[in-house]
Write a structure and sequence with these properties.
Blueprint lengths: L3 E4 L9 H15 L4 E6 L6 H17 L8 E2 L4 H14 L2 E4 L2 E4 L6 E6 L3 E6 L7 E3 L7 H11 L4 E5 L6 H11 L5 E5 L2 E2 L15 H6 L4 H9 L14 H7 L10 E2 L2 H14 L2 H14 L6 H11 L9 H5 L15 H12 L6 H15 L3 H13 L7 H8 L1 H14 L1
The protein binds one RNA strand of 76 nucleotides through strand 7, strand 8, helix 4, strand 12 and helix 9.
RNA sequence: GCCCCCAUCGACUAGCGGCCUAGGUCACCACCCUUUCAAGGUGGCAGCACGGGUUCGAAUCCCGUUGGGGGCACCA
């Protein structure tokens, strides 16, 4: 039997990174086994908010590189079928009506158990189980009925979901049994925490896929990082491209303890991916990013700035602060300026021809000799004058790209302000 | 309160009874390189939650304790 899994988000708010990690595991599992991966929205109502949320979810998954088979389906679409099945169960005696609702009979003794693909054997005393409501008095099926029902109807072979569903599983197992369905393999993936060991939330930083995108993370890095959150192919490998992840992923190697989301490590990994990009590819991503963030900076100049920053920044989101001086005026801190150095620099650079990295470098090195100063002492005030910061891309390249005229203007203005 | 799950460096993890003097990666520290910042190189710091067993031998198996998480809805 071929593998079929499903990603089942609820259409509320933005796609949470913890949920995405669960979807990623589903996707990796299916793709590595030539299986199918469905997208099913677990909605309890419809409306414009839902439609927008679904669109948002699809866009986020698409950006990340997670795809799905067939049309997106909606739980609510099977409302009638659910009611039908519930009535059938009543007719068969495994369920009964209770004040307008339909409840399923749960066993009073024994244990309900299954072999979880991640956590191993799990057993619940059946006495813990209440007769759960299948269909509410208003006719809507409950989650614990609709979900296993749809898994069955969709031919889902493996249910890979967050471990907050562990205690729902025995209930769903009984629903399936009453329905006459063969239960799928269950795999409960541990949750993801924020750095304080609490549930990942807003105050930890980015949590939705959208936020990671606008912070300037690239999808390949985010996918690689997420895959490693709770899973490892061995003790050594860290950087893995999409195909390698697909090839190597197994549920057996998903750990059973919760993982903490480490933003610093994600930053590092994002930098690794960013640096590995071919220069023109990097420039293209940078352009898309800058544009997407709403900056109306000239694209050719952004492209020209790309090589200056590729080695330097770990997130595209650092670009505006790091290289913004190429696109807008600066306000240097007078305390870091040095009128003497700036005056000499203005004069020397004024005669630099052509205005290119080699000539600029030669000019500045000579300036150091003439002033009898270390490059450190000479370059700082110039850097601050031109870029407005003591941290910037390479000075020669920055001057070249900024252009002679603007560079000299800024140096002159800074000299006056010093 | 009851039920279920989890427990290796600060973080992600490798380890599935002897290859462990517990390995890798991030972070951190030091040094090197260097026009700043990065990147890169070298070295370093740091861990089997605790207590009992089982065994010739335990990070690995069993029990308990503690700690964390999840659940106990006509929510999903």
């Amino acid at each position: 039997m071929s593998v079929r899994v499903r990603m089942a988000p609820s259409p509320t708010g933005l796609l949470h990174i913890g949920g995405v990690r669960t979807f990623l595991f589903n996707w990796l599992f299916a793709r590595g086994r030539s299986g199918e991966c469905l997208l099913r929205i677990e909605n309890t109502d419809t409306g414009r908010e839902v439609a927008e949320a679904v669109e948002q979810i699809e866009r986020s998954l698409h950006w990340l590189g997670i795809d799905w088979d067939g049309e997106t389906t909606f739980q609510l679409d099977r409302l009638e079928r659910a009611q039908e099945e519930a009535r059938r169960l009543v007719a068969e005696g495994s369920a009964y009506e209770d004040e307008g609702a339909i409840r399923i009979r749960m066993p009073d003794e024994g244990v309900t158990s299954w072999d979880d693909a991640i956590k191993g054997r799990i057993e619940f005393p059946s006495a813990e189980l209440e007769d759960l409501v299948l269909v509410r008095s208003d006719g809507r099926p409950t989650y614990n009925f609709a979900s296993p029902l749809e898994d069955w109807l969709d031919g889902i072979t493996h249910v890979i979901r967050g471990d907050d569903h562990v205690s729902n599983t025995p209930k769903q197992l009984h629903v399936l049994r009453a329905l006459g369905a063969e239960p799928p393999v269950y795999a409960h993936v541990p949750s993801v925490f924020g750095e304080d060991g609490r549930k990942l939330s807003k105050r930890h930083g980015a949590i939705s896929v959208d936020e990671f995108r606008s912070a300037g993370y690239v999808p390949e890095a985010l996918m690689n990082f997420l895959a490693l959150l709770g899973w490892a192919p061995d003790g050594e490998t860290t950087i893995m491209a999409r195909d390698e992840l697909v090839e190597r992923f197994t549920l057996e190697r998903v750990g059973s303890s919760p993982a903490t989301f480490d933003y610093a490590k994600l930053d590092w990994m994002n930098g690794v991916y960013l640096r590995a990009l071919a220069p023109d590819e990097y420039a293209e991503r940078l352009r898309e990013y800058v544009l997407g963030q709403g900056f109306d900076w000239p694209e050719d100049r952004v492209s020209a700035a790309a090589p200056l920053v590729q080695e330097k920044i770990a997130r595209l989101g650092e670009f505006p602060a790091f290289a913004g001086f190429l696109f807008q005026d600066v306000e240097p801190d007078p305390a870091l300026l040095d009128a003497g150095v700036l005056g000499a620099a203005e004069e020397a650079l004024g005669e630099t021809v052509p205005w290119a990295v080699e000539a600029i470098e030669a000019t500045l090195k000579q300036l150091c000799d003439e002033l009898g100063e270390k490059p450190r002492a000479v370059y700082l005030p110039i850097r601050v004058a031109v870029t407005g910061s003591r941290v910037s891309p390479g000075l020669y390249e920055s001057l070249e790209l900024l252009g002679k005229e603007t560079s000299l203007e800024r140096i002159a203005a800074a000299r006056a302000a010093a």
